[in-house]
TrEMBL record:
It holds the Pfam family SelR. The gene is msrA. Residues 1-23 form the signal peptide. GO terms for molecular function: L-methionine:thioredoxin-disulfide S-oxidoreductase activity; peptide-methionine (R)-S-oxide reductase activity; peptide-methionine (S)-S-oxide reductase activity. It catalyses: L-methionyl-[protein] + [thioredoxin]-disulfide + H2O = L-methionyl-(S)-S-oxide-[protein] + [thioredoxin]-dithiol; L-methionyl-[protein] + [thioredoxin]-disulfide + H2O = L-methionyl-(R)-S-oxide-[protein] + [thioredoxin]-dithiol; [thioredoxin]-disulfide + L-methionine + H2O = L-methionine (S)-S-oxide + [thioredoxin]-dithiol. This is Peptide methionine sulfoxide reductase MsrA. Gene3D superfamilies: Peptide methionine sulfoxide reductase, Peptide methionine sulphoxide reductase MsrA. Has an important function as a repair enzyme for proteins that have been inactivated by oxidation. Catalyzes the reversible oxidation-reduction of methionine sulfoxide in proteins to methionine. Belongs to the MsrA Met sulfoxide reductase family. The active site is at 52. It comes from Tamilnaduibacter salinus. Residues 256-378 form the MsrB domain. Residues 225-253 are annotated as: Disordered.
Length: 398
């Protein structure tokens, strides 16, 4: 079975670049090993395999909150194996990456969503041009919480309809990890030309473009733990908070000084000062994807895409909230007459107004400000803690 380095050589028809890479891999046994783990006990740890560890390492190091990603080997029985041994396919190991991340900056759910966007979870026999069990994808969970979140995320991905083939990536307990040789670490930075040649010919990013399209660019801010969130992460013994939905029993809205730092100027003016954003020049007025809309301050669920319709006003409009009793109505006499203002129940955010000129079945138009909302696509809802609403979410009405 060809190793990845040998495959690069064949793809380049034995060019100088390919020969240099091959020569370097041949001397792997002479490379001195060392520990690459950051000396910071507050960091959380996760381990993933998605084929070529050069690519997986680079992918994770682009995610906000990832402090270090280390290339290595996991999933087999051989102790302290070399690249030559693993690439032969005889050790049971697969190329893997150990990720050290700040749980106060990014949640494990965020890492999972990033991971899906630079690998193929439908191929258990390798990844792209690299074939064999030494390139099989896997999620190696370090605790029960990671196992649960990984399984929920895999299930949501499988049900999203994004792939033509079944999602078959294995989710197994973490047992051991052996760092790869020095020259494999940060390979994309140290050898950009060779790395780019390999990735271009591997088919990885062509596949990602086809499957994810514009959705491959992820807003990781939705997976940043927020002050006042209730759910506590077990990833690091630091009590860091994770994005696991909204619990009204424990939620406390941060003070305005904190919100001024966290929110954009427009978000603050809308939610705290009752402003109205410009029509046709806001984030969600023409949003067509399936998903849920939550309060940008608290995360409390507000509207489903299934109830969104094109009102022609230039603001996101809905026929009803996702649940009865989650919105607060107030009399508003601030604009040449009387209107009914809509605010969120727990964060007391100004959201917009409701009018009696909407379509069936309610005849109502909940005209909202995008700046007061955060949109979570349907295939990310389970990871973000809104799995209970998935069945209620579909494409917009018009």
């Amino acid at each position: 079975m060809k190793t990845r380095i040998t495959m690069v050589v064949s793809l380049l028809a034995a060019t100088v670049i390919g020969l240099q890479v091959h020569a370097q891999s041949s001397s792997s046994g002479d490379v001195t090993r060392s520990s690459y783990a950051p000396d910071d006990p507050s960091l959380a740890v996760a381990t993933f395999a998605g084929g070529c560890f050069w690519c997986v390492e680079e992918g994770f190091e682009k995610i906000p909150g990832v402090v270090e990603a280390v290339s290595g080997y996991s999933g087999g029985d051989e102790v302290d194996p070399t690249y030559k041994q693993v690439s032969s396919g005889q050790t049971g190991h697969t190329e893997a990456v150990k990720v050290y991340y700040d749980p106060e900056t990014i949640t494990y759910q965020g890492l999972l969503q990033g991971f899906w966007r630079f690998m193929d979870p439908t191929d258990a026999d390798g990844q792209f041009v690299d074939r064999g069990q030494q390139y099989r994808p896997a999620i190696f969970y370090h605790n029960d919480r990671q196992a649960r979140l990984a399984r929920e995320s895999k299930k949501a991905l499988a049900e999203s309809g994004r792939y033509d083939e079944p999602v078959v990536i294995e989710i197994v307990p973490f047992e051991a990890f052996y760092p790869a040789e020095e020259y494999h670490q940060d390979y994309s930075d140290k050898n950009p030309i060779r790395y780019n040649v390999y990735t271009f010919n591997s088919g990885r990013y062509q596949f990602i473009d086809e499957v994810w399209g514009d959705d491959q660019k992820l807003d990781f801010s939705q997976f940043k733990p927020r002050e006042g969130d209730d759910a506590m992460s077990n990833d690091a013994g630091s009590g860091a908070m994770s994005g696991t939905g909204f619990d009204p029993d424990t939620y406390t809205r941060p003070n305005d000084a904190v919100l001024r730092e966290r929110l954009t100027e427009m978000q603050y003016e809308v939610t705290r000062e009752d402003a109205t954003e410009p029509a046709f020049d806001n984030e969600y007025w023409d949003e067509k994807r399936a998903g849920i809309y939550v309060d940008v301050v608290s995360g409390e669920p507000l509207f489903s895409s299934s109830d969104k319709y094109k009102s022609g006003t230039g603001w996101p409009s809905f026929v009803r909230p996702i649940r009865e009793g989650i919105l607060v109505r107030k009399r508003d006499e601030s604009w040449l007459g009387v209107r009914t203002e809509i605010r969120s129940k727990y964060a007391d955010s100004h959201l917009g107004h409701v009018f009696e000129d909407g379509p069936a079945p309610t005849g109502l138009r909940y005209c909202m400000n995008s700046a007061a909302l955060r949109f979570i696509p349907k295939d990310q809802m389970a990871d973000a803690g809104y799995g209970e609403f998935v069945d209620e979410v579909g494409p917009p009405r018009s």
